[in-house]
Amino acid sequence: MKQLRIGMIGYKFMGKAHSNAYRALPMFFPGALQPEMAVLCGRNGEAAREAADRLGWPEVATEWKEVVARDDIDLIDINAPSDTHKEIALAAAKAGKHIFCEKPLALSLQDAREMLAAAEAAGVTHMVGFNYRFSPAVKLAKKLVESGRLGQIYHFRAWFLQDWILDPEFPLVWRLQKDVAGSGSHGDLGAHLIDLAHYLAGDIREVIGMSETFIKERPLAENMTGLSAKSSKDAPKGPVTVDDATLFLARFENGALGSFEATRFAAGHRSTNAFEINGSLGSVKFDFERMNELEVYFTSDDEDVQGFRRVLATDPAHAYSEAWWPPGHTLGFEHTFTHEMLELTSAIREGRQPEPNFRDGVKCQAVLEAVERSVDERRWVEISEM
Known about the structure:
Layout: E1 3-9, H1 13-28, E2 34-41, H2 45-55, E3 59-61, H3 64-69, E4 75-78, H4 85-94, E5 98-102, H5 109-122, E6 126-129, H6 136-146, E7 153-161, H7 178-181, H8 185-201, E8 204-212, E9 217-219, E10 223-225, E11 228-230, E12 237-239, E13 245-252, E14 257-263, E15 272-279, E16 282-287, E17 293-298, E18 309-312, H9 333-350, H10 358-377, E19 381-382
Parallel strand pairs: 1-2, 1-4, 2-3, 4-5, 5-6, 7-14
Antiparallel strand pairs: 7-15, 8-13, 8-19, 9-12, 10-11, 13-14, 15-16, 16-17, 17-18
């Protein structure tokens, strides 16, 4: 296979990010399996046509089942709202298509397990969209952990803070409706933190959490695009059925302790996706708002120069950096998706499963639901219970 023909279901926030990644991949990674943007699918034909023209898709469809059934499509890219993931993925697996699905993988752990089982039974490549793994600075943190340079890991603390729904008059977008989104800040933001924890610190054994919905009702939205929306001045209100903020503690299988915070009510934080890892020989700190930097501390440094050092992860020694710009010329949010698609296309070419795949999505969903059970039952919950 020299080219990978893609049918993309969805075209807004993540559709734009994926399209940009597919277009950049041949330019910066010419040796990769080349993606061919074949058809974009959306329910609103007029809006889908406008998006296709803008994003570079030659064909438009309004019925995803037709796209999945086409013999000339190799990969189904699912970035529509979360309540559509399962049905599309199951159909794609049955049709023998490779699958890329945005996170969270599904609305429930049971659904996620069904998606994994279907993909494995079909023998197709499957990947879930945890793009933050693909920041060069995060890859450096992974390298330091795996090489033992941080020693035994004691703590993993993470927080994902946003403020885009702080205004109580912000409309009731789909991300605030449980039947569409599955959960609120927990499943949207916390899922990324959980995946990073699994990637960097290992599997989680047990959790205990708490959550809150600060604004119980919001004006009904007239239209939504990405993280923005509008409503009329006198729009009726509907209930918010997801969490606005969720915090939880965790114990890892390796004995490390973890703390996690996800909220959309942290004024001044546009997208603070951050973590700190503390080990017996050192620590690292990362904040995606400064995504090219990793703060690194080693206990072995001489006492008079001990302290966190800022490492700019743009030198050729860092993952992906040789493909982009000269050292010191920084990368952005969009580059994580290009790296993600590089992993996907490489896995398809090499006949292996990419990382992260649906198994990682299931693991993440198990922790998400364990936290929710913990909140409901006000107790520690082991992941093995799920």
